[in-house]
Amino acid sequence: MASATERPAIWFVTGTSRGLGLELVRQLLERGDSVAATTRSAERLLAALGDRADTSRLLPLTVDLRDEAQVKQAVRETVERFGGLDRVVNNAGYGFLAAVEETGDRDVRDMLDVQIIGVWNVLRATLPILREQRGGHVVNVSSILGLTAVPGWALYSAGKFALEGLSEALAAEVADFGIKVTIVEPGYFRTDFLSQDSLALPADTSAHYPAIREMVADHLKLQGSQLGDPVKGAEAIIGQVESGDGPLRQLLGSDAHAYATAKVGALQANLDATASSAPATDFPAAG
């Protein structure tokens, strides 16, 4: 694989019309890299980038990530346009805030179609290219709620937990091919993730979960005052990919780090509490 010092790096990024994905595209174009950017609306992506972005190295692609044929075609167009592929960023996703009991079958299927099926479609289309050239980098954008879970975010966490499991296994599978995998775990970033246009809510709610309704109201009020800076977040992701180094998990935000630290502490307490009882289900050791 040619390095970015030999030619501009070629990126395939999903979920690019808003949030971290949009900021990634902006910064990558400013660097002079080539970007294939998938979105549900190429027009919205171009409008969001505005006139200040040099789009000569941009390939906007309207793609339904749930459709394997569309994803494969998008990857083919990327290679035909830019002559290769170096980095893959699975960023597409959305929030859903509801109690488990309020979450419908369609809600579950729609979330997993994007968070898991869409990612799998992208990986099946891109990994053969990276494997053949013996190098590349896959970035799967998860969330701190892919490492820990809180009330109201069960469906979102279910998708992100699944993405983290997929990513851990993937990292071990492709390491011998020179392919690096990074799981990005952002905290709350000042994007429109929590806006009424982006955050999905259940069709029917229950009076039995007043705390969830209060949480929804609080999150909608939080929009615009989140701790994380998307410009710095995109810079951090690009920086880790460019370095070719770093841990499997890249936490973004002090809030994310605090959530992760609490989860590790709770897990350690759980392990300590079951240290003596866990072996009780083993077969007796051979004499």
Element layout with pairings:
Elements: E1 10-13, H1 19-31, E2 34-39, H2 42-49, E3 58-62, H3 68-82, E4 87-90, H4 105-132, E5 136-141, H5 154-174, E6 179-186, H6 210-222, H7 230-243, E7 249-252, H8 254-273
Helix pairs in contact: 1-7, 3-4, 4-5
Strand content: 5-15%
Q: Using only CA atoms, what is the Rg? A: 20 Å
Low-pLDDT sequence parts: 1-5
Envelope shape? globular
Specify the helix fraction band: 40-55%
> How many angstroms separate the termini?
55 Å
User: What class do helices, strands and sheet pairing give?
Assistant: alpha/beta
Read across the widest sheet, the strand sequence of neighbours is 3-2-1-4-5-6-7
Provide the succession of SSEs: EHEHEHEHEHEHHEH
Count, helices: 8
Q: Averaging pLDDT over every residue, what do you get?
A: 91
Largest sheet: number of strands, sense, barrel closure: 7 strands, parallel
Count of extended strands: 7
Describe this structure in words.
There is one protein chain. The protein has 287 residues and is of the alpha/beta class. 46% of the residues lie in helices and 13% in strands. It has a seven-stranded parallel β-sheet with strand order 3-2-1-4-5-6-7, with helices on both faces. The N and C termini lie far apart (55 Å). 40% of the residues are buried.
Would you kindly provide a brief summary of this structure?
This protein has 287 residues and is an alpha/beta fold.
